[in-house]
Specification:
The chain is an alpha/beta fold. The protein has a single domain, classed as 3-Layer(aba) Sandwich (Rossmann fold), CATH 3.40.50.150. The chain is built from eight helices and seven strands, in the order ααβαβαββαβαααββ. It has helices at residues 5-11, 14-32, 49-56, 70-80, 119-129, 143-147, 149-154, 165-175, and strands at 39-43, 62-67, 87-91, 104-110, 130-141, 177-185, 189-196. A seven-stranded mixed beta sheet has the order 3-2-1-4-5-7-6. The longest helix has 19 residues, at 14-32. The protein is globular. Bound molecules: S-adenosylmethionine. S-adenosylmethionine (SAM) is lined by residues 1-3, 11, 16, 20, 43-46, 49-50, 67-69, 72, 93-95, 110-112, 115-116.
Length: 200
């Protein structure tokens, strides 16, 4: 789902970048560790701030990144142009990722899967494109925040079948991730590190 005007503004300003750089990415890094080089994918890359962090802070050799919103992709392309072939960006949907099976050493999700009505399908796609042993780094917004009456006044999300951290955790395991570790903030946001089982 494309962001409404309020959330588009919330995602496109220096405060959002600072939160991602100084709080969210370091938290995922502490929980999941850095990459040992390799290929990463960022789903729902927005304007490309996360992609830069995956290359710099997480140590990926290259990052492929896509977003459903062409306006976001245009911004990300400009931001990532200095990285040349290390960063490739396209318009795409997490429910049909245009990459072969077992392509990536890591997949990153900075807060997009709660925007997807068929979120279980998105997890299956992430699992498909990860190499066995690859890691999924995810930060997600939970049902409590999405359904809160104040949030609903100004943000637009799918409202049916939203998840809390235990639902997301359970679905990751059912999809073939193990182990899964998670941390929760006020039952409103959560961070997950999930490893694709080697035998699946
Ligand atoms: C809350 S924003 C987060 C953007 C960016 N990851 C960040 O942290 O700043 C959610 C993003 O997910 C994108 N999005 C929503 N549904 C999507 C889908 N099905 N496939 C890919 N991207 C999607 C939106 O266009 C938006 O850029």
């Amino acid at each position: 789902m494309i962001l409404n005007r309020a959330e588009y503004w919330l995602m496109n300003n220096p405060v959002r970048s600072a939160i991602q750089r100084y709080f969210e990415a370091p938290k995922l890094l502490r929980m999941g560790g850095a990459m040992d080089g390799g290929r990463a994918l960022e789903v729902g890359c927005g304007r490309g701030i996360g992609t830069k962090l995956i290359l710099g802070m997480f140590g990926a050799d290259s990052v492929d990144a896509f977003d459903l919103d062409p306006r976001m992709v245009a911004q990300a392309r400009t931001r990532l142009a200095p990285y040349g072939v290390r960063a490739r960006v396209w318009v795409g949907d997490v429910n049909t990722i245009s990459a072969p099976d077992a392509s990536y050493d890591a997949v990153f999700d900075f807060g997009i899967i709660h925007h997807v009505p068929e979120w279980r399908r998105a997890l299956a796609e992430v699992h498909r494109v990860l190499k066995p042993g690859g890691r999924f780094y995810a930060e997600e917004v939970l049902r409590r925040f999405i359904l809160h009456p104040i949030t609903r006044q100004f943000l637009e999300h799918p409202l049916k079948d939203r998840f809390d951290s235990s639902d997301f955790d359970r679905e990751l395991k059912a999809t073939g991730f193990d182990p899964v570790v998670s941390e929760d903030l006020w039952n409103s946001a959560a961070w997950f590190i999930a490893k694709k089982q080697v035998s699946t």
